[in-house]
Amino acid sequence: MSLNPGLKSVDCTACGAGLDVLGGGRVTVHICPYCGTELDALDSYRALRRFNDVERPKTPFPIGTTGRLYGVEFTVIGLLQHREFWQGVAYTWLDHQLYSPTHGYAWLTIEDGHLVFSRRHRGGGGWMSERQVDTSEYQPEVSIGGERFRYYETSTSTITYAEGEFTWAPQKDERTTEVTAISDGAGMGFSQTGTERETYRMTYLTPEEAEDAFGVATGLMPRGVHALQPFREGPNHNFLTMAGIAFAVLCLLIGGILAARPGERVLSDKLISYGQLPVEIPFTIETPGRLTRIYLEGDTRNSWAYFALELEDPEGEPLFEAGRTVEYYFGKDADGRWTEGNNRASLSFRPEVEGEYTLALSLEEGGHWQPVYPKNNTPAGPVFRQLKMNIRNDLSSGRWMVVLAVVFGLIGGYPLFRKYWHEKRRWSGSDWIDED
What CATH class has 265-371+379-395? Predict the structure, then answer.
């Protein structure tokens, strides 16, 4: 931090304190930091009125601090504290008036530990007014310099503290309304005080960038994500995204190929009627150690059937007991026709030895959803009439490739999620509400 040694100084005409003159030829008032008196810089620093009656706010950039931002040497020449009340909560921020002999005036703002650099926009373009926002059915946008800015918020604040040199005469408690619109990397502020309208372009500064520029330790600890804060990609953002998605797709393709392998038929279209149950069905496994699957397909209609399955190996030893349900329902209501359930079920296992296996199949439970009794008042028929069974051996499963695809998808999607979450938080402070 340093004071420019070549600057002129004046004495406050109210309290006699020495004041550095830092701000160039457009300065119109100088507010003494010691007694709070506003001095007329255009009339021999004549005392106009006392401005401050509150404690000076703390800032890491006191008046006279110099630094280089965007390749330009700036000096802090003024300090303003703003206050806004929103839904009963008071919000304050500090604006630092900056001056460069070669590039004119700018602002450095501290809000919730975040830093924003802004300069007056003189390139022309659109304007966004408070009335336009209030009457718009859709979130307003404006194009300036080929860049699209979407409406973010409207704030109305008053000045509670002022110190230093300014190019206009700040009025204590004067209301300033600013409409803010933002793009991916910048913001536009459309400010109106009385009849004066100004447009400012705003960019985000990290505390580290400000510390490097001004040579000070700011001690700032930003809270949350600022509306102008750009998303900072990690060093491997693009690689992780592209590689993760590519490998996820590859795993899904391999998984689909494995799952589509037909295997070998062990038992083909075995038909079992309701009256045959329980039944024992032998079948031969010639390729042990490979995935084998039992397929069941029934003809239930608004009914369900729970089948018990018990498998014995070639030595007569039980391998497992399991159960599968076959069910199918349909109907019609106010929303139209509907169906539910599936007449198919399957069971997978891995036989360890070659030979003849025996499958015991029985119907344990079953019932009708809405039993329909014909005119002769006899109950509805059985819950199913015919069951078809197929058994295939030497199958492949794509299950683990799907799991791996999910893992790669999470890896590839994490950088995208970070960006999505950043954008969600960046826009969370907007006061725009979409109406259905």
Answer: mainly beta
